[in-house]
Amino acid sequence: MTKIFTFIALVTLSLSSFASDSWTEITSKAKGQTVYFHAWGGSQEVNRYIQWAASELKTQYGIKLKHVKVSDISKTTAKLVAEKTAGKNTHGSVDMVWINGENFKSMKDQQLLLGPFVSQLPNWKFVDKSLPIDVDFSEPTEGLEAPWGVGQLVFIHDKTKLNNPPLSFSEMLSYARAYPKRLTYPKPPSFHGTSFLKALLIELTDNDKSLSSPVDMKTFPIVTEALWSYLDSFHQVAWRDGKQFPSSSAETIQLLDDNQIDLAITFNPNAVYSAQANGKLTYNTAAYAMKQGALSNIHFLAIPWNSSSSEAAMVTINFLLGPQAQSHKGDTEVWGDPSVLQTEYLSGTAKKSKHFKAISEPHPSWQTALEKAWLERYGK
């Protein structure tokens, strides 16, 4: 009980300190601090963008940004849980995290996040409030994480080789049967692989209302029956006979460029332009969404409760929300990540980002349940 009260007191003290400090004071305290930023490291474009941001932060604010590359942010969640269990409520090893979905809900439920803080950020005024920035996979954000970018599940094809790509998962199966070994998807529990499963399940169940609620394992087999039936059929005619799967979105793009498959998958509609600019895809390629729309979500930035450099983490997040950083991030020759800002504040190619019709994410609990069930069936 004493530990619980101590934890609450420390978080309250941290928040009170932020509330009483002016932004000038927070910026002053941030100077000289190092921010250990835990973020996915599987994309050269993302990594280079973070390197650019680190250089700007060093020059403008005297902050050192260290990119701690992780394959799955759930590993960072486990690290934070271990620190909390050990009573390490200050001088934590993680200062900032790139999260959304089940990882946000897990950190929120276990009180691993500092905040609310987003309304204190000067650049908050530039954010497009018409976007679903207040919820994360149906979970209220409550100011504990700041929106960073928009993600939409789309497919990439070569227009000279496939000018009429499948516009539904039903058409995708028909195409795979007509042209065996030309389609695949990343292996779950990779982010893109699980996103493929969710989008497929939404279409097959006509977006069953149960998907927006916590998963009920009693009805889970019934709701997902059509999903497993589809995959059983799809795998028989998929790339490598459905016995091997790409490890990531990046690998599907490479396979598309190598003419081994006909569709790549990404959660960034602008990824095709970045890949073209970097010589990873020809200029004949294009991204598109299924006719039902694109599975969509916002990805966020948050600060652990025990950050060693919470002021610098706040300044870093505020910088990353600013027009300069968002425009650079949205540049299709840099990263091409669609911005969360109002268009009037953007410049360059970031201003031209296209958003497809959006389909909301299922409740976060469906992600874990689908991954577990998929691995039991096909992961051996």
UniProtKB/TrEMBL annotation:
**Hey, what's the signal peptide range on this chain?**
1-19
Read off the Pfam families from this record: SBP_bac_8
KW Ribosomal protein (keyword) present: no
Cross-referenced SUPFAM superfamilies, in alphabetical order?
A: Periplasmic binding protein-like II
- InterPro entries tied to this protein: SBP (IPR006059), YnjB (IPR027020)
Which terms are listed as keywords in the entry?
Signal
> The organism sits in which domain of life?
Bacteria
Protein's name in the database: Putative ABC transporter solute-binding protein
The protein's organism comes out as Vibrio caribbeanicus ATCC BAA-2122
Q: What is the lineage of its organism?
A: Bacteria, Pseudomonadati, Pseudomonadota, Gammaproteobacteria, Vibrionales
